[in-house]
Amino acid sequence: MRIVIASDHAGFALKGELKELVRELGHEIEDVGTYSGEKSVDYPDWSAKATERIVSGKADRGILICGTGIGMSIAANKVKGIYAALCCNEFTARVSREHNGSNVLALGSRVIGAELARSITTAWLDSEPLEGRHLVRRQKIMSCEAETHSNSVMAEGGGRIVIIEHPLIQHKLSIVRDKNTSVKDFRDLIQEIAGLMVYEISRNLLLEEIDVETPVCATKAFSLSGKKLAVVPVLRAGLGMVEGILRLIPNAKVGHVGLYRDPDTLQPVDYYCKLPNDIGERDIFILDPMLATGGSASAAIHHVKKRGGRRISLVSLIAAPEGVEKVKADHPEIDIFSASLDSHLNDHGYIVPGLGDAGDRLFGTK
User: Fold this and answer.
1) Beta strand pairing call for 160-163 and 152-154
2) Which candidate in 27, 134, 166, 302 is catalytic?
3) How far is 320 from 291, CA to CA, in rounded Å?
4) Would you say residue 149 has pLDDT above 70?
5) Per the confidence metrics, is the pTM higher than 0.85?
6) By the number of CB atoms within 10 A of the CB, which of 126, 188, 316, 333 ranks highest?
7) Are the C-beta atoms of 201 and 241 separated by less than 8 Å?
């Protein structure tokens, strides 16, 4: 089993002892810091390093140590997918695994001694989650997490990065990734995913109270507050998302920005831009299914800004970290919505694992 371990300055000495124990028990151990007990450091920084290894799949479980263990456990449990348990004896360590499925053990070096810490760690590493009623309860915890944990991160500059993790979207996205999916099915699914994404990208639209007469009585209801919207696909692949959005927001106006990526330089080349005359008064959703290098998306945002657009969001199906970084560097205030943040770009500028060239797969070209 791959175990990641981290501590602040207060837990540094105990961390050294537990590293040896983990090795003795036959597990791999990765120490991500801190690397000295002399310099005072902030426990959230080291918790973040360890939990990142777990949620990315590079470690199976983690051990976090600070003076009381409280700070580390609180910081770790802010991360989606982390279930940290602060344990003070062998019983709580074992039950935290068997009943609660904890994947992080938090320990307080100033609360328990080294021998007790070794016993707790051994019990925790040797225990596995039980099924039955305990599985049902763990599933309820995960459901609560899915409903309440924010799926957006506020980036520097004010714009958000929102990964939309709804099960229906993720299911359909898995089908469009499949190279054997037909052109017709691919086209239909892109529209369906875009339509489902509308629920998240339109979450902050303002409502106003109105009077409605139902067949039973008069009542109060809510209507969009005169909001003007525009969708702007980046040609050509962005066209595949338009119909799915218009089905739910039929009064939105549609603009177009024509860009293609030079195959040698990977830089965007523009050839067309047509936007509604009142673009400056509208909330704008720029549609670019594949946020790869970010060059085309950034150029499209620039074109819309140059023509008066102000309230702009970027909507993609799949994004690469390089593309997100490029857009945020050029337009830090922009919200980015995507159904997936994939691993990286390959040497040809394609997203990995991605889904290939979205335009070619939409229109059956090579």
Assistant:
1) antiparallel
2) 134
3) 6
4) no
5) no
6) 316
7) no
Tell me, what's the pLDDT at 210? 83
Tokens representing residue 30 in the block: 């990765």
| Confidence at 142, pLDDT banded by 50, 70, 90 | confident
Annotated catalytic residue, options 27, 31, 68, 357: 68
Q: Is 66 a catalytic residue?
A: yes
Q: State the pLDDT confidence band at 137, using cuts at 50, 70 and 90.
A: confident
Query: Is 303 assigned a catalytic role?
Result: no
Residue 45 is among the residues annotated as catalytic for this protein: no
Split at pLDDT 50, 70, 90, the class of 157 is low
CA distances from 353 to 318, 342, 346 (A): 10, 7, 9
Q: Nearest 5°: phi and psi at 204?
A: -95, 10
Of 67-71, 239-243, 307-311, minimum mean pLDDT range: 307-311
Which pair of tokens denotes residue 175?
């089908």
The partner residues of 116 in beta bridges, in order of sequence, read none
Which position among 99, 188, 302, 357 bears the catalytic label? 99
The two tokens of residue 5 are 């371990």
Does residue 176 contact residue 184 with C-beta atoms inside 8 Å?
Answer: no
The residue type of 202 is S
Of 68, 71, 70, whose CA–CA distance to 108 is shortest? 68
34 preceded by cis ω (within 30°)? yes
Q: Which residue, 326, 182, 202, 305, is CA-closest to 252?
A: 202
